[in-house]
Amino acid sequence: MPMNEQPPWGQKKKPSSPEDFLADLIQKIRDSFTGQGKNNKPSPDGENPQPGNEPNFLAGIGKVALIIVAVVLFQVIYSAFYTIEPGEQGIVLRFGQYTRTTQPGLHFKIPYVEDMIKVDVESVRKEEFGFRTRTPGKNTVFNKRGFDMESLMLTGDKNVINVDWIVQYKVSNPVNFLFKVRNVPQAVHDNSETVVRRIVGNMDFDYVLSNREILADMAKQELQHDLNKLECGVTLVTLQLLDINPPDTVKPAFNEVNEADQDMKRLVNEAEETYNRVIPKARGSAKQIVEESHGYAVQRINQAKGETNRFNAIVAEYLKAEEVTRRRMYLEAMQDILPNVDHVYVMEKGGQNVLPFLDLTGKGSPLTNKESK
Known about the structure:
Distance between the termini: 172 Å
Number of helices: 10
CATH class of the largest domain: Alpha Beta
Strand content: 15-25%
Number of domains: 4
Shape: rod-shaped
Helix content: 40-55%
């Protein structure tokens, strides 16, 4: 049965599916423009329709307008809702003026009155200086050709140095990021280059080569301070000096200077090693000798005092009994001397010959042995 044909009981059949409803709607629009419809049916005798049954163009236009209004209404309702993904924030503007910031989730806005701009606040953005990443990944490929104007700079001692570095940052204030600065990446790039050039220009060549971490930390603090003054709405994640080298044209001379500097440091280290080994030893020996001399002096003084006290005691006893004390001293002296003597000879007073008196060793006197030979 055609869609525009009435059923026998006089009521039009309703579409049974969305496809039928869409086909019915398209047919109605087609009928509105072609003039076919209820008022265009042919007469029962097959003649042309009467003049009173001509197509009603105003009714067709009204149907089209109704369809347009329905589509617009659907679009308005659809545009009133929006979704903010995780890691994003939505900035809502009412007639171009900021009103609120929305967090991840489903939200509502007034259609055609409020606009919404999504800002990614979780992704880490970066600016590269002296090189560009050609192929990121595990085996990253870099391109350094054509970026010498970014990396070449002058040090404090008027030497040219090549510095490559990278700046990574995240959006911390979406409103400032969108509306305070026209081009935030360009602002980060220009300020970073200014800060690094200023710091390197105040340092010597050797200091820049050997203290890249200190310089990177200084540059990060100064750059964050400048970006906060500009109200860029970003927070630095890292500022890292990747490669610091002299230009290719002066590398041979630079290598020679480095070799000479290394030789000098080696000789200085050897001299310091010898100094640290010899000087403390000499100081220890000198201190040992001084301490031994002090000990020897104390020993001699104490010994002299003891001998003096002993002599005084002997003198006191000698004055009490001269003969007895003299005899005792003689015997004590002989007691100490005779154990160390092999032969004892007694010389007669006024005598010319030497006679053996006592052989303490039991070997006989030397004269006896000589005569026996």
